[in-house]
Amino acid sequence: MLVPLLLDFMACASILIKIPAEGHITMSNDVKNNLKSQSTWMRGLYMLLYIIFSRLAEIVLGFIILFQFLLKLFTGETNERLLKLGQGISTYIYQTLQFLTFNSEYHPYPFGAWPKGEPRPAKLENQGDSNDA
User: Mind listing the pLDDT tens digit for each residue in 3-48?
Assistant: First the structure.
């Protein structure tokens, strides 16, 4: 089980690192350029911040969920303002996850606008070619 995983890792590593016949390991120029890329390091910093922000948002959303459940349990109704806040936080978490997984270059709040309404679906490349009805 471990051997196939190790072989897969070695195959991936051989793409990044060139091993000449002499046995000396050298990095390819692409890897060196990627490691020096300021935009990649800045994105990494943003990613760390968004991980923290999204975890805090999840905690707040958890309290909203609990409070809405208790309201529904005892009054039979939900709070309209909390519904909108819950939707906004849910959309915010979705936007941060899209950014963190490299599916979006959009910087969510606080570097972008606070989301309004439901999240927009990700753009599909061959959206018009779908035959699903």
Answer: 555 556 555 555 555 555 555 556 677 777 878 878 889 999 999 9
**CA pair distance 114, 95, nearest whole angstrom:** 10
The dihedral region occupied by 27, where left means phi > 0, alpha psi between -120 and 50, and beta the remainder, is beta
How far are the Cα atoms of 32, 68, 70, 87 from residue 58, in angstroms, in the given order? 37, 15, 18, 12
The reported pTM is 0.67
Distance, in Å, from the CA atom of 106 to the CA atom of 8, rounded to the nearest integer, reads 33
Q: What are phi and psi of 9, to 5 degrees?
A: -65, -45
| CB 62 within 8 Å of CB 53 | no
Number of H helices, E strands in the chain: 4, 2
